[in-house]
Each structure stands twice: as C-alpha cells, then as structure tokens.
Amino acid sequence: MTTDDHLVDRQPTLSGAQIIAHLVPPRQFADATIETYRPDPDYPSQAEAVQAVREFTAASRPSGGLFRKRAPEALPGIYLDGGFGVGKTHLLASLWHAAPGRKYFGTFIEYTALVGALGYAEAIALLKGASLVCIDEFELDDPGDTRLMSRLLSELVASGSRIAATSNTPPNALGEGRFAAQDFLREIDALAARFRTIRIDGLDYRRRDVEGHAVSITPEELDAAVDRFSGSITSDKFGDVITHLATVHPSRYVRLIDGLDAIALRDVYVLSGQTDALRLVAFVDRLYDAQVPILASGIPLDQVFAEDMLGGGYRKKYLRAVSRLIALTSGEIS
C-alpha cells in the first residue's frame, strides 16, 4: 500500500493553465465513440439521439471537395436533455473525439472556474475560435453563473464555434428534466433558435447491471482493506471530509483526488445540511470521472442523503450521485 495520508491534508490549487489542461473528456470516456454507445431498445429516443449526434458530427467536418454539394445549413448547437445515466456524457465525449481542430470539453463548473481564474476577457480570448466547445452538466441553479455562460456562449457561436451541452437541471417540478432544455434556451435567448434539442429517455445504465446498495464494510474490514491496498489511498473520517470540502472550491476537487487510486471513508452518516450534500455531489462527480473507487464504513453511501433532500428541488442531482456511489463502492465503475 502507498498511503497518501488524508484527504483533509490536501490543499489543492488550480491555475488557469491547469484548468485548460483538464478541458478534455473524463478518463472513462477517453475512447468513447458513437459506435460504443449502447442504446436501450426499450427507449427509441436513445437511438434517435445517436442519429442526431451523427448528423451534428458530420456537419462539423469539411465538405472534402470543391464541387461537392453543399449540405443544408446546420444549427451550431446541440443540447442533450435527459435524466441521469442515459449516456449523455458518452455522446458528448463522442462528439468531442470526432470533432476536428481545437476543441474543449468540461463541466459547467470548470468553465466558470476558468473565467474566475483568468478573467472573462482572457477566457473568451482563449476559447474563441475553437471548433467545438462541450459543456457537461449545464447548471441552472445559479442564475449568475448561468448568465455568465450565456454571454460566453453567445460570443463563441459568433466566432464560429459549435456548442454541445448536456442538461443538469435541479428543480423537481421540471419532471425529470423534460423542460430543462426550454429553461436553458431561455437563458441563452439570442441562441435559442440555433440549438437543436435532443430528448433522451431511459433508465440509468449503471443500474442495469448494478443493483442494491452501496457497499459498506465494518471498521475492521476497512482497516484491513486499506493496509493491503496496493495503490495510493487516503483514509479519513467521513465528517472530516465533508468539513474539508467546504474549504475547497468545487473546481479544485479534481486536484484534491489527483494521483489517488482509491479513498477510504470511515463512519459515514446521513447528511442533514443541503449545502454539505451538494458539495458531496460535486465531489462524487469528480471521483466518478477519475474512476477512483471508495471503501467505506458506516451507513451505505447511497443512503447519505436525507429523505427530504431526495424529495426536494435537487432530487435529480442526488439520485445521480446515489447511482455513482453504488458503482464506486461496488467496483462497477467502467
């Protein structure tokens, strides 16, 4: 075992250059293609989404010949709207891999962090002219950041960039995200008519093969597992990690787990504060992107969100995190 002590001892920093370096698809989507996406035959909208992505990809490529017939003018943006675990990120990464030229892929929070690190003018100068800008997990629960991104997207499209985005809309009243696209398009009012919205229905693909609860082991079993672990692992009390996350900007969570092969969380308990719960959701997203498994004692991690949270406005985010926590503790993280 190579122990990196504790997560709470890590004080990550993240420069603008480091953020830019991370604007690529997560590790588990490093080889994602449209061909490797597995549409669920019970949900035809998934196959329809694949076709829409193919068309968007084809429209981004050069015509290839002086006398080739010009294709109909395609919209410069595509917006994938659907529940968690239906493969939106896979399709978004597929677009990125297929696109020519300079391109970027990041979460909503990574782009807002880039603006925070570099300033708006420098960030737009860096991104402007990119062939494709992919935005995963577009947030609608922070009006200020959403307006900032709306302005940024307007300038990018004006520079000739194509935009692809996925939704991550919190309000429960939106009905599993069905109207998320409309809210998103209203926020980018000048671009609304230039985006093709694709609805993707379906069940969480992580739950097709992984059922039950997140795996929890006894404190003694956790000690033994940490001792025999062959890679780099941290070991912390769950409550200490929750406290530490409040001191680190979510854009730096990716650096918090940099170089780790696993983390151990002791004495997991039900969270009572929504702010802490939302930070944990952001942290779980980064763990999942980096394919860092979790060893845990205490209550199963899929039960960490209180019932009133699961029934509230951020239900969609919590359910996505639950799905990922089950995968991260079961070994089914590919």
UniProtKB/TrEMBL annotation:
Tell me one Pfam family matched here.
AFG1_ATPase
What GO annotations for molecular function exist for this entry? ATP binding; ATP hydrolysis activity
Q: Name one GO cellular component term.
A: cytoplasm
Sorted alphabetically, the Gene Ontology BP terms of this entry are: cell division
Q: Which InterPro entries match?
A: ATPase_AFG1-like, P-loop_NTPase
Q: Does the keyword Nucleotide-binding apply?
A: yes
Give the protein name, as stated in the record.
Cell division protein ZapE
Native organism: Glaciihabitans arcticus
State the organism's lineage: Bacteria, Bacillati, Actinomycetota, Actinomycetes, Micrococcales
